[in-house]
Write a structure and sequence with these properties.
The chain has ten helices and three strands. With about 300 residues, the chain is an all-alpha fold. The chain has a single domain, classed as Rhodopsin 7-helix transmembrane proteins (Rhopdopsin 7-helix transmembrane proteins, Up-down Bundle), CATH 1.20.1070. A three-stranded mixed sheet has the order 2-1-3. The longest helix has about 35 residues. About 35% of the residues are buried.
C-alpha cells in the first residue's frame, strides 16, 4: 500500500526536442508547416470521398477513417508543442497531460487497427475477388471500422485508469515532447509492475499482432499476384495495394522498428525523433502517398476543387 499523504503533482514539464532557446523558433516553424500540410492533405481527401459517389467503396471508406485519425493524432500532439516552443515554456497541467496521453493512445491504436483492416480488404479483393462484394459489404465494413475505434477507445481508457491510480511525488520532468505513457509511468513513486505488464501486453496486442496479420495478408496477396499469367495483370493487382503497403512500411518502419531500437539504447532524444516520425511525419505523408498513386483520388480531388471554385 502507498502512503496516503503523498502529494500529487499539479503539472509536468515536457523537456521537448531541444532545451536550447535559439532552436525553438526554427522548430516552431518546422512543426507548424508540417501540421498545416497534414490538414491540407487529409481534409480534402475526406471531403472528396464523402462527396464523390464513385469513391463509396470499402477501400476509400477505410481511407477516409484513416485520414480522420491522422488529423486527430497530429492535433493531439502538435498544438501543445507549438505553444511551448513559442512561449519557451515546458509546463503541461496534470489534467492536460493525462488527456494528451489518453487521446494519443486512442488514435495510435485506432490507426494501427485501421491499417490492419485495410490489409484484409486488399487480401479479399485480390485473393477472393469473386466473393469481395459479399465479404466486404457495407455492414461488414462498418462493423470492422467500429471495432477498430471501439478497441482503441477501450485500450486508452484501461491504460489511463491504471496510470491514474499511481502517485507522483517529486520527479515530474518528462523526457519527451508529449506525455508518453511509458515516460509518465517512470516518474511514479508507486509500484508500477502491473502498469508495465499491461503496457507491454497491450503493445504486443495492438502492435505485433496486427503487424503479423498484415504480413500474412500480404504473403497471400503476393502469392496470388505471382500466379497471374500476364505482367499487366500483375501490375494492376499490385497497384491496388501499393499505396497501402507504402503507408504500412512508413508507419511500422518508423514507429515500431526505430522506436524500439532507440528504446534499447536508452536515448530519450532518439525516442522523441522516432515518435515525431510516426505520429507527425507519417500522418502528413499518408494523403500524398494515396493521392499520388491513385488516379481515382486525383480525379475526385480535381472535381471537388472545381466544384468549390465554381461555387
Amino acid at each position: 500500500m502507498e502512503p496516503e499523504n503523498q502529494t500529487r503533482v499539479s503539472e509536468f514539464l515536457l523537456l521537448g526536442l531541444s532545451e536550447k532557446p535559439e532552436q525553438h523558433l526554427p522548430l516552431f516553424g518546422f512543426f507548424l508547416g508540417m501540421y498545416i500540410v497534414t490538414a491540407i492533405g487529409n481534409i480534402p481527401i475526406m471531403l472528396a470521398i464523402v462527396s464523390d459517389s464513385h469513391l463509396h467503396t470499402p477501400m476509400y471508406f477505410f481511407l477516409a477513417n484513416l485520414s480522420l485519425v491522422d488529423i486527430c493524432l497530429a492535433t493531439t500532439l502538435v498544438p501543445k508543442m507549438l505553444v511551448n516552443l513559442l512561449t519557451h515554456k515546458k509546463a503541461i497541467s496534470y489534467a492536460g497531460c493525462f488527456a494528451q496521453m489518453y487521446f494519443f493512445m486512442f488514435f495510435v491504436c485506432t490507426d494501427t487497427l485501421l491499417l490492419t483492416v485495410m490489409a484484409y480488404d486488399r487480401f479479399v479483393a485480390i485473393c477472393h475477388p469473386l466473393h469481395y462484394v459479399t465479404k466486404m459489404n457495407p455492414q461488414i465494413c462498418g462493423l470492422l471500422v467500429l471495432m477498430a475505434w471501439t478497441f482503441g477507445l477501450l485500450n486508452s481508457i484501461l491504460q489511463l485508469l491504471m496510470v491514474m491510480r499511481l502517485s507522483f511525488c517529486k520527479e515530474y520532468e518528462i523526457s519527451h515532447f508529449f506525455c508518453d505513457i511509458s515516460e509518465v509511468i517512470k516518474l511514479s513513486c508507486s509500484d508500477t509492475l502491473i502498469n508495465m505488464i499491461l503496457l507491454y501486453f497491450m503493445t504486443g496486442l495492438i502492435g505485433v499482432l496486427p503487424f503479423t496479420v498484415i504480413l500474412l495478408s500480404y504473403t497471400q496477396i503476393c502469392s496470388s499476384i505471382l500466379r497471374i499469367p500476364s505482367s499487366r495483370g500483375k501490375y494492376k493487382a499490385f497497384s491496388t495495394c501499393g499505396s497501402h503497403l507504402s503507408v504500412v512500411s512508413l508507419f511500422y518502419g518508423t514507429g515500431f522498428g526505430e522506436y524500439l531500437s532507440s528504446s534499447g539504447t536508452h536515448s530519450s532524444w532518439k525516442a522523441s525523433v522516432a515518435s515525431v516520425m510516426y505520429s507527425v511525419v507519417t500522418p502528413m505523408l499518408n494523403p500524398f502517398i494515396y493521392s499520388l498513386r491513385n488516379k481515382d483520388i486525383k480525379e475526385s480531388l480535381r472535381r471537388f476543387i472545381s466544384r468549390l471554385s465554381f461555387s
